[in-house]
Fold this protein.
Amino acid sequence: MIYNHHMRKNIFITLFLFLFYPAFAQAAQPGDLCSTAGLTQLAAGADQIPAVMLVCNGTSWRAIMETGTDGRSLTQVDNDTGDCESTKTGRLRYNEGTDTWEYCDGGGPGWLPFEQAAGGGGCSSGGLSMGGFCWYIGLLGQSCTTVCTGRGGYNTATSSYAGSSGTTANCQALKTAFVSDVGSWGGAIACPAGLGCVIGSGTGYRCTSPATTTGAAEGTGARFCACNS
């Protein structure tokens, strides 16, 4: 009877592990197919230690929350490319174009930076920090190559932040910060050269084409240039 008692106990434990443990160990993994949008599930297994919270987007499971082996959150923040609006107050984004963390105060449309870009530091004399980079306004006819000489060299944020690959709001913010009491705002236009953000005859413009370059210059335009220091 003792033998039979232990035998029945072992069979019960085996059945319990077979019925319940595999359901957890074989949970869906990120990228697996699913069909019910909005359904959530905790994934566990060799690739998720200790666990990942998944949500179904109607086609596949996507990870929405992950923790490390010490139980701490491994949060990632995406780059929200839309305007800063009241519904986004308090939201963070990682601006991939300028390598900076930014936040939305609800007043938009621009996002506000709260740290220097990677490798950033203080700006040289005459510089203004915006978007995590040091900005300068050149003289009429100067290229950004010249403007950034002695200031750490040219930075591509000239294009990605306020130039042809940037936003009109950022360019206008630069114009206002440097020459708020002068001229007007002309908006986004096509220009004779890749000047990026520029002021000419008292009016600010963002040149959407041709593409912003470091060496572009125009005799009646003063460029806004991002430099590395």
